[in-house]
Specification:
The chain is mostly helical. The protein has one domain. Helices cover 42% and strands 0% of the residues. It contains 3 helices and no strands. It is elongated. The termini are far apart.
Amino acid sequence: MKSQGAIADNWDLSVKRATSVVKIMTKNSTVNPKRLTAAGRGEYSPLDLSNTKEGRKKNRRIEVILTPKLDELFKLLESN
């Protein structure tokens, strides 16, 4: 990841990590950027609560959450 200036805290770092992933996805695919949202959780949504090296490593992650276009899903359900 290219440096984007000073990192204030873990929340800031997670936002920058998420934004980097979204930029990579839009650069290397036909995904419409209007359909993507980057969000950082910082220390507020850990997988591992231990304060170990391994625990912190688990918490440095990205999650991609896929959701359907609800209007298209409802049309599909109504047609059946």
